[in-house]
Write a structure and sequence with these properties.
Distance between the termini of chain A: 65 Å
CATH architecture of the largest domain in chain A: 3-Layer(aba) Sandwich
CATH class of chain B: Alpha Beta
Shape of chain A: globular
CATH class of the largest domain in chain A: Alpha Beta
Number of helices of chain A: 24
Number of domains of chain A: 5
Helix content of chain B: 25-40%
Helix content of chain A: 25-40%
Largest interface: A-B, 41 and 34 residues
Oligomer: heterodimer
Number of domains of chain B: 1
Order of helices and strands of chain B: HEHHEEEHH
Structural class of chain A: alpha/beta
Strand content of chain A: 15-25%
Structural class of chain B: alpha+beta
Chain lengths: 602, 124
């Protein structure tokens, strides 16, 4: 029995800042001081506070060390683990208050969170099935198989009010009910782990931190709809997730939690992995199934819906990773427990990946109905460098921007749709005054143009034309009429595209046109980019009366566009400089070099 | 896996390790003095004895064993302090691993302080 557990985050975020080297160094130091039998080092999944990685937590004290460096390890091991003196200097400073150390759950980042889908992330070792079982893992599967009928399982999920966490928010229980109602010799349970929204990584974190919860939930779904086969479609770009999922499936088979006659009830279920090549369209359900079948990942028209004819033309359900991560908890704690969280029409919690201009970049799980303001300013710790909030982008390339006036909106599926955005899989990118909204719309549209599979014309050609118009606007060649044309084209693409990719691709453009039309107008009428992002519309100018004539900017300028003038400002000793805008490449090196703040852009 | 009982057996076995990673504000705390004086006087086997005894009795969720620094009575090391929420702190001195089961049983389980091991008895 170990007296102390040291948890080190092994999620993708922390591993890329070297947490695995930290694990090795820890083990080495622990061995050296003869603590091997007393202290257990565990590599866990994501803690969520990725901005502060690598993260390391020592129990039973619950000491939260942040931004740990390999050089700090000998000190932490010797002082904390050997002598019991917490190295306060290296702790996450928000947990240190005067002389006492407060619990992590009392910090701003964690206090408002409610971890359901992420409950095991950062707690268990994802490569040990026993750790998962210790947290009541597979107890829900046991309960379902021995005490409940498939109809009761579906009813429980229906009653809980759980809706699809992939973004569209279709009631999960209903999906299961449709698939259960269709008779077939073979049915399939699929999991969509093809997380493709730029900035979203909640599914990856669940796979990396708690892979067994997915396996258990898929087996429960299999029992509910009468399927014996499961497929997880996960992108090959998630190597850690793939590896841990493979380990987990292997362990579950070894324990007989996958395979034949599970719990001696005669129920058979097994899961296979399918690796996706990272095409965004394969997150669309029909394209995903086509890809699993080994064909080119293109969507097909619906109906028939997957519940009737899905994978290999058999009745199929497809749910997102985060959706599955809630299932076992709903079975164990009851649908009332789940539906007690959230808003009237959106129950439970939602995981968001916070990114962009925010202090606490990372993963947060909050009850539905939490306001955007709470997420950005309390949990997220506000915007760096005292900048002003401009918008939050949710739903990735399918979603839209939420402006400041809607900061107090309670986040749920329907509220976000009403203001022209969508839940999406849960990416939440915060933008400040330095972001140009036209440029943001262009960024997302470039992504969808790249990712459009090309099967249907509205999406293939429509998004391309839309992008061309945006490019004209950001280079000063736009007209006011173009804004109306863009709106028409957006609505046309939405109405006529075959699948969700095209139907939602214009959303970033539409929502920025709706809330930030004045920025578009500044681009087309004044030929200015108010945020100073669109290079073609920028001009750098030296304010001659502020210029001391030091010449630093002229030396830094890579295009030799700055030269001395014959004007000397009153009170200055040397003549001022000026920029030749025909030669200027708008790199901004002069602004950075000027000590007197005499250069401005605009 | 052929039965729920089998699953439960694995769960119970694995649970003690996981309990260590939960913060239970109502847990009783066993603080073992692990400064140089404590370690020199043999505090480490005492600490391990507490950990093992508590795990053996399945009390990992209710009792936290942790280290602390020197509290200034080096001549009485190994020193162990026990804090039960809502009760006064009790300080045991010159603790040996053999005394641990009795302290756990009498004090932590049955709520009777083992007076003869406390600092009060020692300084009389």
């Amino acid at each position: 029995m170990y007296r102390s557990n040291v948890l080190v985050c092994g999620g993708t975020g922390c591993t890329s800042s070297n947490s695995l080297t930290i694990v090795h160094k820890l083990q080495e130091e622990i061995e050296r001081l003869g603590l091997k039998d007393e202290v257990n080092v565990i590599t866990t999944g994501c803690f969520g506070l990725c901005a502060l990685g690598p993260i390391m937590v020592v129990y039973p004290e619950g000491s939260f060390y942040s931004m740990v460096k390999v050089e700090d390890i000998p000190e932490i091991v010797e002082e904390h683990l050997l002598k019991g003196r917490i190295v306060t200097r290296l702790l996450y400073q928000e947990t240190v208050e005067d002389d006492t150390i407060k619990s992590l759950n009392k910090t701003a980042f964690y206090e408002k969170q409610k971890r359901v889908a992420l409950r095991n992330c950062g707690v268990i070792d994802p490569e040990k099935i026993d750790d998962y079982i210790a947290q009541d893992g597979y107890a829900a599967l046991g309960k379902v198989l021995t005490e409940m009928t498939p109809d009761e399982v579906i009813q429980t999920i229906l009653d809980s009010g759980l809706r699809g966490r992939g973004g569209a928010g279709f009631p999960t229980g209903l999906k299961w009910k449709f698939a259960a109602a269709n008779d077939a010799d073979q049915k399939y349970v699929c999991c969509n782990a093809d997380e493709g929204d730029p900035g979203a990584f909640m599914d990856r974190s669940v796979l990396e931190g708690d892979p067994h919860c997915l396996i258990e939930a898929m087996a429960i779904a299999g029992y509910a709809i009468g399927a014996s086969q499961g497929r997880v479609y996960v992108r090959a770009e998630y190597p850690i997730a793939v590896k841990r999922l493979q380990i987990a499936i292997g362990q579950a088979r070894e324990y007989g939690l996958l395979g034949k006659d599970i719990f001696g009830t005669g129920f058979d279920f097994d899961i296979e992995l399918r690796l996706g090549a990272g095409a965004f369209v394969c997150g669309e359900e029909t394209a995903l199934m086509t890809s699993i079948e080994g064909k080119r990942g293109e969507p097909r028209p619906r109906p028939p819906f997957p519940a009737v004819k899905g994978l290999y033309q058999k009745p199929t359900i497809l749910n997102n990773v985060e959706t599955y991560a809630n299932i076992a908890q709903i079975i164990l704690k009851g649908p009332e427990w789940f539906s007690s969280m959230g808003t009237e029409k959106s129950k439970g919690t939602k995981v968001f990946a916070l990114g962009g201009k925010i202090n606490h970049t990372g993963l947060v799980e909050i009850p539905m109905g939490t306001t955007l303001r709470e997420i950005v300013y309390e949990i997220g710790g506000g915007i760096p460098n005292g900048k002003k909030f401009k918008a939050a982008q949710t739903g990735g390339p399918s979603g839209g921007c939420i402006p400041e006036e809607h900061l107090d909106i309670e986040i749920d599926y329907d509220n976000l749709l009403a203001i022209g955005s969508m839940m999406g899989s849960g990416g939440l990118i915060v933008m400040d005054e330095d972001n140009c909204m036209v440029d943001v719309a262009k960024f997302f549209l470039e992504f969808t143009v790249d990712e459009s599979c090309g099967k249907c014309t509205p999406c293939r050609i429509g998004t391309k034309r839309l992008l061309e118009m945006l490019e004209k606007i950001t280079t000063g060649k736009g007209t006011l009429e173009m804004l109306d044309e863009m709106e028409d084209l957006c609505n046309y693409i939405k109405a006529n595209s075959l699948c969700g990719l095209g139907q939602t691709a214009p959303n970033p453009v539409l929502s920025t046109l709706r809330y930030f039309r004045n920025e578009y107008i500044a681009h087309v009428v004044d030929k200015k980019c108010p945020a100073g992002v669109c290079k073609e519309l920028l001009q750098y100018t030296i304010e001659k009366d502020k210029c001391f004539g030091c010449g630093m900017c002229a030396r830094k300028c890579p295009a030799s566009a700055i030269s001395v003038t014959d004007y000397t400002a009153p009170g200055k000793k040397k003549p001022a400089y000026e920029i030749d805008n025909n030669k200027c490449i708008k790199c901004g090196a002069c602004i950075e070099s000027c000590k007197f703040k005499a250069i401005y852009k605009g | 896996m052929k039965s729920l009982a089998e699953l439960k057996a694995i769960r119970d076995k694995a649970r003690a390790e996981i309990d260590l990673r939960k913060e239970n504000p109502n847990a009783a705390r066993v603080l073992v003095g692990m400064a140089t004086c404590g370690i020199a006087a043999g505090a480490r086997p005492v600490l391990t004895a507490f950990v093992d005894e508590i795990a053996k009795r399945g009390l990992t969720n209710d009792i936290v064993v942790t280290q602390t620094g020197c509290i200034g009575i080096c001549q009485y090391e190994p020193v162990v302090e026990i804090e039960v929420p809502g009760e006064e702190k009790v300080t045991y001195v010159k603790v040996a691993p053999e005394m641990v089961p009795k302290i756990v049983n009498d004090h932590l389980v049955n709520k009777n302080v083992v007076t003869e091991y406390t600092i009060g008895a020692m300084t009389k």
